[in-house]
Specification:
The chain has one domain. The chain is built from five helices and two strands; from the N terminus they run αββαααα. It has helices at 3-8, 37-45, 52-65, 73-79, 85-98; strands at residues 18-19, 30-31. The protein has a two-stranded antiparallel sheet. It is globular and about 25 Å long. It starts with a helix and ends with a helix.
Length: 101
């Protein structure tokens, strides 16, 4: 099981700048700087398989990464038109942070 799969289960309850894993898995905390933006992009694209909270949190995490997450811009742009206003707003805010605005 990948680190992403393990951490995805707790993604919606973690601090904004870190990804935590369940203490039951004995997996250590993973710093946001250790995460690849592509892992969060996959969460954004996983609409049928992950919950809305995970997608919103992924957008916020990408924004927190700043310019390092520039590869996520096309996917975030699409999400600004999402029917869920919270996801659309999170995507717009992430875009602003990634672009340094």
């Amino acid at each position: 099981m990948s680190r992403l799969s393990i951490c995805l289960l707790t993604l919606v309850i973690v601090a904004p700048l870190s990804i935590g894993c369940s203490s039951k898995t004995n997996t250590p905390m993973v710093s946001l700087s250790d995460m690849d933006p592509k892992e969060f992009i996959e969460i954004l694209k996983s609409k049928p398989t992950v919950g809305m909270d995970a997608r919103i949190t992924a957008a916020k995490q990408l924004g927190a990464m700043g310019p390092r997450a520039k590869d996520a811009l096309p996917d975030l742009e699409k999400l600004t038109q999402d029917k869920n206003p919270t996801l659309a707003a999170a995507a717009q805010e992430a875009i602003s942070k990634i672009k340094g605005q």
